[in-house]
């Protein structure tokens, strides 16, 4: 299994890049979001990878973070979701967006990905809802994982005009700590994840105590 690849980008296509690793070229398929964040041709990059092996095909898929890679693995475990659909979902929502959509049961957000119909979107949300809490707790970049020092996690956003913009993600650490706290209070993983996701979306940049208070209000019995 090829889990990570580092090398020089030889060329870029619409859905993949060719990475030269000591004279051997690897075709690596990526989401639109990942492709937009990669450096220019001729520069060195590093990607986590997932190798798909079939009787008549070998394909390598690349991801900037372990969270993105893990979501790809989970998405493709859903019946009817292949690698192409998974990359479309990740490219449209980003891994944070996928976590929030599934935690909140928002299958319409999943359906916004190209080639994903309503039945598949609903199945994704239903099958993976209990996976969202652990995925929301995962953070980190490739540089951090391989000991290259501290690195700020930056997501890329493509605006309606096709321009790539950098955007800092929400406080993933606070969300993780809030999830843990709600779990300790006895809330189920699905309910806790949904409440934390909604609280985070309504309180951008909030710290852990603020997220916990907001999530508890959402989980309180309605009169």
Automatic annotation (TrEMBL):
Boundaries of every Holliday junction DNA helicase RuvA C-terminal domain copy: 174-220
Primary localization: cytoplasm
GO molecular function, one term: four-way junction helicase activity
Location of the DNA helicase Holliday junction RuvA type domain: 1-62
Pfam family, one: RuvA_C
Region (Domain III): 172-223
Record note on domains: Has three domains with a flexible linker between the domains II and III and assumes an 'L' shape. Domain III is highly mobile and contacts RuvB.
Functional description taken from the UniProt entry: The RuvA-RuvB-RuvC complex processes Holliday junction (HJ) DNA during genetic recombination and DNA repair, while the RuvA-RuvB complex plays an important role in the rescue of blocked DNA replication forks via replication fork reversal (RFR). RuvA specifically binds to HJ cruciform DNA, conferring on it an open structure. The RuvB hexamer acts as an ATP-dependent pump, pulling dsDNA into and through the RuvAB complex. HJ branch migration allows RuvC to scan DNA until it finds its consensus sequence, where it cleaves and resolves the cruciform DNA.
HAMAP family, A to Z: DNA_HJ_migration_RuvA
Family (UniProt): Belongs to the RuvA family.
Protein name, as recorded: Holliday junction branch migration complex subunit RuvA
Natural source organism: Sulfitobacter noctilucicola
């Amino acid at each position: 299994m090829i889990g990570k690849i580092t090398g020089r980008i030889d060329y870029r296509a619409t859905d993949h890049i060719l990475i030269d690793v000591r004279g051997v070229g690897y075709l690596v398929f990526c989401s639109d979001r990942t492709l937009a964040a990669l450096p220019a041709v001729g520069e060195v990059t590093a990607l986590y990878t997932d190798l798909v092996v079939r009787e008549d095909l070998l394909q390598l898929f690349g991801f900037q973070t372990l969270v993105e890679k893990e979501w790809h693995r989970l998405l493709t475990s859903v019946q009817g979701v292949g690698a192409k659909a998974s990359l479309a979902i990740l490219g449209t929502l980003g891994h944070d967006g996928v976590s929030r959509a599934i935690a909140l049961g928002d299958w319409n957000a999943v359906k916004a990905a190209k080639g994903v119909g309503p039945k598949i979107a609903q199945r994704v949300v239903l099958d993976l809802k209990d996976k969202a809490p652990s995925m929301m707790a995962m953070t980190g970049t490739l540089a951090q994982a391989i000991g290259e020092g501290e690195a700020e996690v930056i997501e890329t956003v493509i605006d309606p005009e096709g321009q790539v913009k950098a955007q800092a993600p929400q406080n993933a650490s606070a969300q993780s700590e809030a999830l843990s706290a709600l779990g300790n209070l006895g809330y189920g993983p699905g309910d806790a994840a949904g409440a934390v996701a909604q609280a985070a979306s309504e309180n951008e940049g909030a710290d852990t105590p603020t997220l916990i208070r907001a999530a508890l209000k959402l989980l309180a019995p309605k009169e």
